[in-house]
Amino acid sequence: DTLQTPSGCDSIVILELTVDDIIENDINQSICQGETFPFGGQTLGESGIYRDTLQTPSGCDSIVILELTVDDIIENNINQSICSGESFSFGSQTLSVTGTYRETLQTPSGWDSIVILELTVDDIIESNINQSICKGETFPFGSQTLSESGIYRDTFKSPSGCDSIVILELTVDDIIE
Question: Is 113 helix (H, G, I), strand (E, B) or coil?
């Protein structure tokens, strides 16, 4: 621009103008349910898109856009049965009693994962059988064919897969003529 001084002389002013771009930053952030994230003077705890305008050192606007995701806690339910006398490993515990158990683990991404175990301990079933046969007859018992008096014991698998113990008292009666 050409201006005139008070004494009538020309004065030339040259302006070099720089227009700075508005700086825009996009942030993607995830937190676990129950956690919070500080952003622009706020404490956020819900998923959403949030904006904040800040000033750069040159006085221009800087817009920050935050996409916040709040991940749910993962919860898994497990039903498990074991036989009496066995144990079940669950997290850091070794269990052998019927009950409901909780374990908080971390997923590979660092979030909490709650596992609820319903453990059932099935009892060993024990049955007693009294049986009589006549002399010369046989009685099938498990993989055996019996023909003599005595107490016999065999172990079978119950429908739940646990041992079922059967105790047979076999009596061989003489034939009366």
Answer: strand
